[in-house]
């Protein structure tokens, strides 16, 4: 039990297996470093413990794996991570959309085009994370961050939408929160690719995710400040 007999909150952090012929995926490398981390939420707020789970980069199978992890852990917070090669910042996603449209095949060779993630579900769901507060906290710590308004249409968005649909239709715990964060390439990945692609060191990603977890658990009302984009 946490100080003052408060319960220890359970946090599920997921990352993806490597895809598109790469050998590593920074989302999983960062998530696995958080496994077992005990987060002190501050005086009177208790503590939390993180459990990391690796997701297959496969349409459908990713949702099955996520459901199993949620059923197992009954988390208070679910933070799904994915790679956004070419981005220079840690980017909490604002919205998940109900469409699968693969630019490339997933790791099982599937490439759905213009298919719903969940037939009959809403067109989209907003994250329930305090995304602007997360960005603010990351920037205050000297870590590049911004709000993203598109999680794409590949397996990252697929998992994000599936998470939010489950939370909307069959939440595991009262007050459960969840969302998705994209992370950049690691330097060793960028070094193997042509051009000067941006990257962040693994230690920076891990520290950024610690901040993201703590902020998501302690900030109940998001900041009201600009996070929009012109395009």
TrEMBL record:
Give the enzyme's EC designation.
Answer: 3.4.19.3
**Signal peptide span:** none
Family label:
Belongs to the peptidase C15 family.
Residue positions of the active site? 93, 156, 182
| Complex formation | Homotetramer.
- Outline what the protein does: Removes 5-oxoproline from various penultimate amino acid residues except L-proline.
Enumerate the CDD domains for this protein: Peptidase_C15 (cd00501)
Main localization of the protein? Answer: cytoplasm
**Can you state which reaction this protein catalyses?**
Release of an N-terminal pyroglutamyl group from a polypeptide, the second amino acid generally not being Pro
Keywords carried by this UniProt record? Cytoplasm, Hydrolase, Protease, Thiol protease
* Matching Gene3D superfamilies: Peptidase C15, pyroglutamyl peptidase I-like (3.40.630.20)
Can the keyword Hydrolase be found in this entry's annotation? Answer: yes
The organism named in the record is Variovorax dokdonensis
**Annotated GO MF terms:** pyroglutamyl-peptidase activity
Q: Where in the cell is it found?
A: Cytoplasm
Name the chain's protein: Pyrrolidone-carboxylate peptidase
**Keyword Protease belongs to the record:** yes
| HAMAP family documented for this protein | Pyrrolid_peptidase
């Amino acid at each position: 039990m946490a100080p003052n007999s408060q319960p220890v909150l359970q946090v599920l952090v997921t990352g993806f297996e490597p895809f598109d012929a790469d050998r590593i995926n920074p989302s999983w490398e960062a998530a696995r470093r958080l496994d077992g981390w005990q987060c002190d939420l501050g005086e009177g707020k208790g503590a939390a413990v993180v459990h990391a789970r690796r997701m297959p980069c496969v349409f459908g199978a990713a949702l099955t794996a996520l459901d199993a992890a949620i059923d197992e852990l009954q988390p208070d917070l679910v933070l799904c991570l994915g790679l956004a090669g070419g981005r220079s910042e840690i980017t909490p996603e604002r919205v998940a959309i109900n469409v699968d449209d693969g630019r490339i095949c997933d790791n099982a060779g599937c490439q759905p085009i213009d298919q719903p993630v969940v037939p009959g579900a809403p067109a989209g769901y907003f994250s329930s994370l305090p995304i602007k507060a997360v960005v603010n906290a990351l920037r205050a710590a000297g870590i590049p961050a911004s709000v993203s308004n598109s999680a794409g249409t590949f397996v990252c968005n697929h998992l994000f939408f599936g998470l939010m649909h489950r939370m909307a239709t069959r939440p595991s715990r009262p007050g459960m929160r969840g969302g998705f964060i994209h992370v950049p390439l690691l330097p060793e990945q960028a070094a193997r690719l042509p051009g000067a692609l941006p990257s962040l060191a693994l230690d920076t990603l891990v520290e950024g995710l610690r901040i993201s977890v703590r902020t998501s658990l302690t900030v109940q009302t998001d900041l009201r400040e600009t996070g929009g984009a012109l395009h």
